[in-house]
Amino acid sequence: MAIDENIEALTTLAEGVTYPVLVDADHRLTELYAISNIPTVVWIDENERITRPNAAEFGTDTFAELTGVYCKPHMDQIRAWVAQGTVPDDADHAIADLEPDEIAARLHFRLAAHARRTGMADVADHHFDRAVALAPLDFTVVRAAMPLRDGDPFGPAFFELWERYRDAGSPYHGIPRAAS
Amino acid sequence: MTTSTGSTLTVLAEQVTTIEATWDDARPVVAVAALPDLVGWELKSEGLCRADACVPLSDRAMVERHGGVDLVAAAAALGRPAIVDVDAGLVAVGAPADERHRALYDRIAPDFTLPDLDGTPRSLSDWSGRKRLLVAFASW
Lengths: 180, 140
Hints:
The structure holds 2 protein chains of 2 kinds. Chain A has 8 helices and 2 strands; from the N terminus they run ααββαααααα. Chain A is mostly helical. Chain A has a two-stranded antiparallel ribbon. In chain A, α5 runs antiparallel to α6. A 7-stranded mixed beta sheet of chain B has the order 7-8-3-2-1-10-9. In chain B, strands 4-5-6 form a 3-stranded antiparallel beta sheet. A two-stranded antiparallel sheet of chain B has the order 11-12. Classes of the chains: A mainly alpha, B alpha+beta.
């Protein structure tokens, strides 16, 4: 589920994958599943039950030094779930609901993204500003807005966001992970 | 209270829909007949209804305005947040809070439909009966 509207970049990223890639340009899932950063992984069983809720899990170890999360333990857990039905101990962690400001930020982001797509640059700017002010540590709002405002999501603004996020105790709607 | 003449309103909900609306101060008022296409529920004497289910309205006058429907009030009655940009003629209507609560508290995965990379609509329930790993990722 790509929390993204850049089809070209997503097509490149998805080259060779054998599973379906869905495009969530309006960030509906960040509201519906209280997702505040990517990657976020949710396990869903055969009967629509969420077996293990939101957690930051990676497909590679590219960012492992930065995040402290390695991919192998999670991959092993998935194999055990599929093969034996084993569920990890952290799966009953309760995920906090979105705060009203976080919901409002998502709606402002949606207005901004639509305004940008339809050529209303000033309207887009206004709503991006509102969204970022309401959810200043939410990566699906702040970082996702960067490329839509001609910013670099891998540049200084990202590292500034990362520092603020760490200083605030890494607030995340998901299973807490031991950051290095 | 001021009521403006009709203007165009673009509603961002499950789909993007552009309709005619009037304004009651900063609140968009849409035709009763337009409501089901916007939020999936219709205004009836019992309240807001979809199939056999109806949500009674505690204050009908809040929702029914000038022969139309106050879209933000109707959304609120369905547990859906909304944010309006009057000048731009835009309103974003969020998901029902209940659906997110089912995910967070009852651990039932809310279904959704999104386009794949080719633009074909796909739903989580298309793979019902199988274990699924929902991976939220991005290029940013």
